[in-house]
Design a protein that fits this description.
The protein is of the alpha+beta class. The protein has three domains: 35 residues; 175 residues, Beta Barrel (conserved putative lor/sdh protein from methanococcus maripaludis s2 fold), CATH 2.40.420; 135 residues, Beta Barrel (OB fold (Dihydrolipoamide Acetyltransferase, E2P)), CATH 2.40.50. The chain has seven helices and 23 strands. The longest helix has 30 residues. The protein is rod-shaped. This is HlyD family efflux transporter periplasmic adaptor subunit.
């Protein structure tokens, strides 16, 4: 009996131990970690951004070792890894101060040389007729004196009726005068010589008056080219009825063009030493890789137009791209010089307030934005007059890309 009670007590203790183990085991596992090898995983790992610490502590060297993308630092500068610099093809130059010519920037328009161009206009109302060949077309080269078309006069029915009546009256008078002259010549021995000469002059005058009226009614007017060149305007078609002074053709010489500009400052003929023009200016102020026009300063007017003084330039050399009426941006360099640093236009970028900025490469992977004052030197370059120091390394390509880094 005592043996059975002892056995039951042992079983009860065993059951209690098993239940205790089953309850405590998950709790122990939750607060412990298994280890393999010599590593200890009993502590929760902590992930810390070294780049973030570098930003807080200003340690750019640490940031450059761990970052893989350009980032804007708290001081406003940019951290750009070398890999990214190569991908963006960033290029820099050393700022060198020098004397550069002062440049004035003008807006101009291409015009035809008045000595190498001309217009063909209708002298009276009429109908256009072909010259036996096709009418001249745009771009066709013509020679001086070449017949381009014919103009047949047209008039109202009333005017035509009056002209026809005048012609009939002149015809009758001419017939009488000719018969009178024949009778006088038959009686030449009996009549004074002066009487016969008067009859002859009267018949000749009536004959000329009749020819003039016939020309106004039937004869066509030849439209000829006043100069040699290329047809730039063609407003004539066969059968077209035009009014007097209407321009039918315009002829220019593409190798003899001029440029007219307006200047708000006085420019003397000896002040301009070099002038160039371009017509492809982007919104960021840079010029495309298009041919530039080399200009020769001719002179300026003495009468203001639109509160400005008109200036005239001549296009130097043969022109292959500019057209009459095209607007240009002109850069005229004066004899006066100013000191500054010459940079490509691509080195500039603008803030929201239109302030001109450049990137200064202060460290291997750090760029600082610098506000500058600039003046245009030519279509491809500007002169920084203030904001830079000689010897600083300036970014000249990819400035607008870095400005987008947040």
């Amino acid at each position: 009996m005592k043996f059975a009670q002892a056995n039951n007590a042992l079983r009860t203790k065993t059951y209690v131990a098993v239940i205790a183990i089953s309850i405590l085991t998950p709790l122990l596992l939750a607060n412990s970690a298994f280890a393999h090898g010599d590593e200890d995983h009993s502590k929760k790992p902590t992930v810390v951004s070294k780049v973030g610490e570098a930003k807080k502590n200003g340690n750019n060297a640490l940031a450059s070792r761990d970052a893989t993308a350009p980032q804007r630092l708290p001081d406003g500068s940019l951290f750009v890894p070398k890999v990214v610099q190569r991908q963006l093809q960033l290029r820099t130059i050393v700022a060198e101060s020098d004397e550069w010519p002062q440049t004035i920037e003008l807006n101009g328009k291409v015009i035809a040389d008045p000595n190498a161009g001309g217009k063909v206009q209708a002298s009276q109302a009429g109908r256009i007729e072909s010259n036996g060949q096709s009418l001249p077309s745009l771009g066709q080269r013509v020679s001086k004196g070449q017949v381009l078309a014919y103009l047949r006069p047209v008039m109202s029915s009333l005017d035509r009726g009056n002209s026809t009546a005048i012609l009939a009256d002149l015809d009758a008078q001419l017939s009488i005068a000719e018969k009178k002259l024949q009778r006088y010549e038959a009686l030449a021995e009996a009549l004074p010589k002066a009487t016969i000469e008067t009859a002859r002059y009267d018949a000749e005058a009536l004959r000329k008056r009749k020819a003039a009226v016939e020309v106004s009614l039937y004869k066509m007017e030849a439209l000829v080219a006043p100069v040699a060149g290329v047809i730039s305007v063609a407003n004539a078609t066969a059968g077209q009825v035009v009014d007097a002074r209407e321009t039918l053709f315009e002829i220019i010489d593409p190798n003899r063009l001029m440029v007219e500009a307006l200047s708000y400052e006085t420019v003397q003929s000896g002040d301009v030493v070099r002038a160039t023009a371009t017509w492809s200016i982007n919104s960021n102020g840079s010029a495309d890789a298009t041919p530039e026009l080399q200009l020769i300063f001719v002179g300026g007017g003495q009468q203001m137009r639109e509160q400005a003084i008109p200036l005239l330039f001549r296009v130097s050399g043969k022109n292959q791209s500019a057209a009459v009426g095209q607007t240009l941006q002109i850069f005229a360099q004066k004899r006066q010089h100013a000191e500054g640093v010459a940079l490509p236009v691509a080195a500039l970028f603008k803030l929201s307030n239109s302030q001109q900025m450049v990137w200064v490469h202060t460290e291997a992977e750090r760029f600082v934005a610098r506000s500058v004052q600039v003046k245009r030197l030519d279509p491809q370059r500007v002169v920084v007059t203030s904001g830079l120091q000689e010897g600083e390394r300036i970014l000249i390509s990819g400035a607008s890309l870095l400005a987008q880094v947040k």
